[in-house]
Amino acid sequence: DAGVIQSPRHEVTEMGQEVTLRCKPISGHDYLFWYRQTMMRGLELLIYFNNNVPIDDSGMPEDRFSAKMPNASFSTLKIQPSEPRDSAVYFCASSFVHEGYEQFFGPGTRLTVL
Amino acid sequence: GENVEQHPSTLSVQEGDSAVIKCTYSDSASNYFPWYKQELGKRPQLIIDIRSNVGEKKDQRIAVTLNKTAKHFSLHITETQPEDSAVYFCAAMGSGGGADGLTFGKGTHLIIQP
Questions:
Q1: How far is CA B78 from the centre of its chain?
Q2: Is A107 within 8 Å of chain B by CB?
Q3: Is a pLDDT exceeding 80 seen at residue B98?
Q4: Which of A76, B52, B69, B74 fits B31 for a cystine, CB–CB 3.0-4.6 Å?
Q5: Three-state secondary structure along B17-86?
Q6: Measured distance CA(B64)–CA(B74) in Å, rounded
Q7: Which positions in chain B have a beta carbon within 8 angstroms of at least one beta carbon in chain A?
Q8: Are B52 and B66 in contact (CB under 8 A)?
């Protein structure tokens, strides 16, 4: 398996623009997580899904953030409108609970909002 | 919600010596405690994990200990090598029938001095 795939790897945009980050989990995994990493706040959970259903979105910072998982092999994290303080590395991770709790991280998307 | 504290933030040791990183958590219901290693510009990768029904786990030069009563867990690396230089994160996961999002500590920058 290729592991968790994220795109784009780097995104530079201007304040006010819409940003869409994409994630393909490991085939067969039933959990998908979105995390954000910044120097100030470290690694923080934004939202996670189980079998494509959002379970906990309490980490989503504002209504500007939304996430969807239309099927088992694809998820998006959208920011609209984007702000400079959204600049961070966004990681997607997936796991298969029946094989343990290990979460496998994707390579991340480095987002810069100017 | 869960809160994870990690110390120290930076640790410098001589090559061949041991390194110890400590974490505490707040939610007594947490039952899974992974440790991730992150090299600069890379994704977090699991190096070892422990569940709440186990007090200690070892994998070659790496070991983790858990004290549920004190809500404290530690990472021990023996015979450190230059390739051990990285940022290490501890994390805790809540209870429940399935998986949950991880709450991470702020990280420890481990520096191995030659």
A1: 14
A2: yes
A3: no
A4: B52
A5: CCEEEEEEECCCCCCEEEEEEECCCCCCEEEEEEECCCCEEEECCEEEEEECCCCEEEEEECCCCHHHCE
A6: 6
A7: 1, 32, 34, 42-46, 49, 51, 89, 93, 98-107
A8: yes
Q: For residue A62, how far is the Cα from the chain centroid?
A: 15
Are A97 and B98 a contacting pair at CB < 8 A? yes
**Segment (H or E) for A33:** strand A31-38
Q: Which residue has the tokens 């390194």?
A: B19
As a whole-number percent, the residues of chain A with pLDDT over 90 amount to: 92
**CA-nearest residue of chain A to B3?**
A44
Residues B1-44 pLDDT 10s:
889 999 999 999 999 999 999 999 999 999 999 999 999 999 99
